[in-house]
């Protein structure tokens, strides 16, 4: 089989990614045209962390087929748009497509379409495969961390607030996680624990402590098996003594 062209793989509304190639002769009737997606490997396509995993598509076509277009798309209709992806053009009717953590997880459909020399569709074949995305620990951040008031009398209360968020395609709050508050007194390099708080709706958390020395405060999330640790910005509070 003589192959004379290669193509690109792209994703548009409906999730279709196109891969094109070409053969030699043409087929004009279905009974004398052979087209088959012979193998998809690996299946499932397992993506781990930030790495990419290539899936190889082996398509068989008769010598009368002039061109083959291979499309792959998520089987679920809820995915409307996908970014453009590249393709490795291999020997014969074989292609390699790289998948990563941003690709939809679950069942996918591959469809091969054969065209004759006149550009007329003469045969189709389809097959299903699966993409298993194992993202590892997701990134987190502590946003909107404040210690208030910024100036307080010694012995009074200092209040803390902030929000723990996780990056799951977009930043969103994490509920039910413990965040610790630390204080570093002015002139010291040591951070000391002062309070802990559990995140609620929207990832919000609150805490308080007594004011004894001026210094900086920060919030720390230690992470777990699914979430990465994170630390907030620091916020300074001046503590003064009351005098008559």
Keywords summarizing the entry:
244 residues; mainly beta; Immunoglobulin-like; five-stranded mixed beta sheet; 0% helix; rod-shaped
Give a structural overview:
The chain has 244 residues and is mainly beta. It has 2 domains: 118 residues, Immunoglobulins (Immunoglobulin-like); 101 residues, Immunoglobulin-like, CATH 2.60.40.730. Helix content is 0%, strand content 53%. The protein has no helices and 19 strands. The strands form 4 sheets. Strands 11, 14, 15, 17, 18 and 19 form a 6-stranded mixed beta sheet that branches. It has a 5-stranded mixed beta sheet with strand order 1-5-8-9-3, with no helix packed on it. It has a 4-stranded antiparallel beta sheet with strand order 2-4-7-6, with no helix packed on it. It starts with 16 loop residues before the first strand and ends with a strand. The relative contact order is 0.16.
Q: How are the SSEs ordered, and which strands pair?
A:
Blueprint lengths: L16 E6 L12 E7 L3 E4 L4 E9 L5 E8 L12 E3 L4 E6 L6 E10 L5 E14 L5 E9 L2 E3 L3 E11 L3 E3 L4 E8 L6 E7 L5 E7 L4 E7 L8 E2 L3 E6 L4
Parallel strand pairs: 3-9, 11-19
Antiparallel strand pairs: 1-5, 2-4, 4-7, 5-8, 6-7, 8-9, 10-12, 12-13, 12-16, 14-15, 14-17, 17-18, 17-19
CATH class of the largest domain: Mainly Beta
In the CATH classification, which architecture of the largest domain applies? Sandwich
Topology order in helix (H) and strand (E) letters: EEEEEEEEEEEEEEEEEEE
Would you give the CATH topology of the largest domain? Immunoglobulin-like
Report the uncertain regions: 1-16, 18-30
